């Protein structure tokens, strides 16, 4: 849950910027297989941390491009958080989109396992 949803600061709350925060959390979960702050038993513990200005830890195994992408998703100030359009132009996403376009041009792909193989070495270890 994005900080502005928890604190309701300045009349902010649910919106596209909060969705981008959630995207960052989903990417962390996809990389680690665990939700951010998985060590906390109760969601209220996580909400407290977010409300106090803490960001989910970015996994060490994420590439510099991935870390930068996540930093833009997890920007505390929703006005400074990147939009979906900006994120689509980020190198972390462009590599995936390029691989997707190249491998689906023939229309025969039935699995996304090729995407991991198409990623540059070290992009996500």
From TrEMBL:
GO biological process: intracellular signal transduction
Keyword Transferase assigned: yes
Listed GO MF terms: ATP binding; protein serine/threonine kinase activity
Protein kinase domain: residues covered: 1-93
Pfam families per UniProt: Pkinase
Alphabetical UniProt keywords: ATP-binding, Kinase, Nucleotide-binding, Serine/threonine-protein kinase, Transferase
Family in the record: Belongs to the protein kinase superfamily. STE Ser/Thr protein kinase family. MAP kinase kinase kinase subfamily.
Name of the molecule in the record: Protein kinase domain-containing protein
Organism: Pavo cristatus
Lineage: Eukaryota, Metazoa, Chordata, Craniata, Vertebrata
């Amino acid at each position: 849950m994005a900080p502005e949803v928890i604190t309701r600061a300045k009349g902010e709350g649910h919106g596209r910027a909060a969705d981008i925060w959630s995207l960052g959390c989903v990417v962390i979960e996809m990389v680690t297989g665990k939700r951010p702050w998985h060590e906390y038993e109760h969601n209220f513990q996580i909400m407290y941390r977010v409300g106090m200005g803490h960001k989910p830890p970015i996994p060490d195994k994420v590439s510099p491009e991935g870390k930068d992408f996540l930093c833009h998703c997890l920007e505390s100030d929703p006005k400074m958080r990147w939009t979906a359009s900006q994120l689509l132009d980020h190198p972390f996403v462009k590599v995936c989109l390029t691989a997707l376009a190249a491998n689906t041009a023939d229309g025969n792909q039935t699995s996304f396992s090729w995407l991991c193989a198409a990623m540059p070495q070290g992009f996500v270890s």
